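Our preliminary data section would be incomplete without showing what the modeling component actually yields. Below, a chain of 261 amino acids is followed by its predicted structure, encoded as tokens that our downstream tools consume directly.
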Amino acid sequence: MRRHYGVREKIVQGITEIGSFCILLARAFIWGLSFPIEADNIIYHLYNVGFNSFPIIFLTSFSLGMVLALQSGITSKIVFNEPLYVGTIVGFSLLKELAPLITSVVIIGRVGASFAAEIGTMKVTEQIDALYTLGSNPIKYLVVPRVIGCTLMVPLLTIVSNVAGILGGMFISYINLDIPANIYISDTFDFLRVRDFLHGLIKALIFGFLVANICCYKGLRCEGGAEGVGKATTSAVVTSLVVILLADYFLTRILVMLKIG
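Predicted structure:
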């Protein structure tokens, strides 16, 4: 009986968490459309999420492009006795799938964890209660700028990721596979269409929105002092990763049905 009761409690707790998260989404959306806006706060988070993440995004995607080109070149050599369509494979893999995913994962680790830790620390030190007391809205002041920052900058960083990955693939193709740069570029763009590019950007937009809201939500639900902040941060990272991987599948199905990619 105890085991059944524990399972039932977990189910109820999970449903409650989903309901609370949906309420946060609605409140963040409503307050995000209300005036006055927190312009300085929004600009800071645009800079923090975007510019400060540029080096790690570029380096990660460049390395990923090199690995994709090397692996696809080696495989095509085995099958066709020469490296064929390396640029096409790298381009399609990055634009439609890997670039938005790898960008979101980096943002979760670099920015999302800090969102949860900052807001969680404010929660356990009662600074959020102080905001209520002073007549400020914590959702508008803390959550909305972070959500706007992630939602707008993750697609832009995904474009950076696409460019870096294609450059990385071109570098390895020239160095290791003896593929001239013009052939690689031709292979990359001959088969790509605008909707393939939009496919990845739409995913990145939704991933950024989800990551920011999940991490802020975990911070707002934090309790239990320093230990609670650590648990909230860990939970924010793990939950964000699981959610974007699940969302990736369903978004792919929906976008394919809509003939976007």
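The longest helix spans residues 86-124. The radius of gyration is 21 Å. Preliminary results of this kind motivate Aim 1 of the renewal.
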